[in-house]
Design goal:
- The protein is mainly α.
- It has 10 helices and no strands.
- The chain is elongated and about 55 Å long.
- The mean pLDDT is 89.
- InterPro entries: Homeodomain-like_sf, HTH-type_Tx_Regulator, HTH_TetR.
C-alpha cells in the first residue's frame, strides 16, 4: 500500500472545494478532482474510499474547524458581553478569511440528501458546552442552544453575504448586530 502524503491530501481537499463551488456536487467527479489536485485518480482512493465518503469527511473536517476556530478565541475570564462580541467578530473574520471553505460547508449543509448521510457532527458540541457554562453562570438567558447558535451566527452570515454593501457598511451592521445580540441574550 502506498504511503499517504499530507501535501497531496491538502491538494485533494482544495480541489474538492474549488470544483464543488464551480461545478456542484453532481458535476464533480473523482477524475476531475484528481486532475485539479495534480494526482492520479488512484491516489485519491488512497485517502478516500469513494466520492460520498470523501465529501462527508471533508465537510465534517471544515464544519468542525469553524467551531474550533471560534472557541480558540475564548478565555475563561471573559464576561458575557465580551464573549458574544468575540464569537461574532471571529465568525465574521472566519467567513472572510476562508470564503471558499465556508461556502463549501454552507453548500453541503443546504443539501438534505448529503447532510442526512453524514456521520455525527461533533463540532458544535464544544460551543454548546460553552453556552451551557454561560447559562449556568447566569451570563446569558436560558434558551435552547440551537436557537442561540442561529440567533448569534445567522445574521452574521447574512451581513457577510451582502454583496451590494461596502466593507465599511458591513462593519457598521456588524457593530449594530453585536449590540442587538448582547441586549437580547445577556441577563
Amino acid at each position: 500500500m502506498r504511503k499517504k502524503d499530507d501535501e497531496k491530501q491538502r491538494n485533494i481537499k482544495k480541489a474538492v472545494v474549488k470544483l464543488i463551488l464551480e461545478e456542484g456536487f453532481h458535476g464533480t467527479s473523482m477524475s476531475k478532482i484528481a486532475k485539479e489536485a495534480g494526482v492520479s485518480p488512484a491516489t485519491v482512493y488512497i485517502y478516500y474510499q469513494n466520492k460520498d465518503t470523501m465529501l462527508q469527511d471533508i465537510y465534517l473536517e471544515y464544519y468542525e474547524e469553524i467551531y474550533y476556530h471560534l472557541l480558540s478565541k475564548i478565555t475563561d475570564d471573559m464576561s458575557g458581553n465580551q464573549l458574544i462580541e468575540i464569537l461574532i467578530r471571529s465568525y465574521y473574520a472566519y467567513i472572510h478569511e476562508n470564503k471558499d471553505i465556508f461556502n463549501f460547508v454552507e453548500q453541503f449543509s443546504s443539501c438534505p440528501v448529503l447532510i442526512n448521510q453524514c456521520k455525527v457532527m461533533k463540532g458544535k458540541y464544544p460551543i454548546y458546552k460553552l453556552f451551557e457554562d454561560m447559562k449556568e453562570k447566569k451570563a446569558i438567558k436560558n434558551v435552547r442552544n440551537d436557537n442561540l447558535l442561529a440567533f448569534m451566527f445567522s445574521p452574521i452570515k447574512s451581513i457577510s453575504e451582502k454583496h451590494c454593501s461596502s466593507e465599511e457598511e458591513k462593519l457598521i451592521m456588524l457593530e449594530e448586530m453585536i449590540k442587538i445580540v448582547q441586549e437580547a441574550l445577556l441577563l
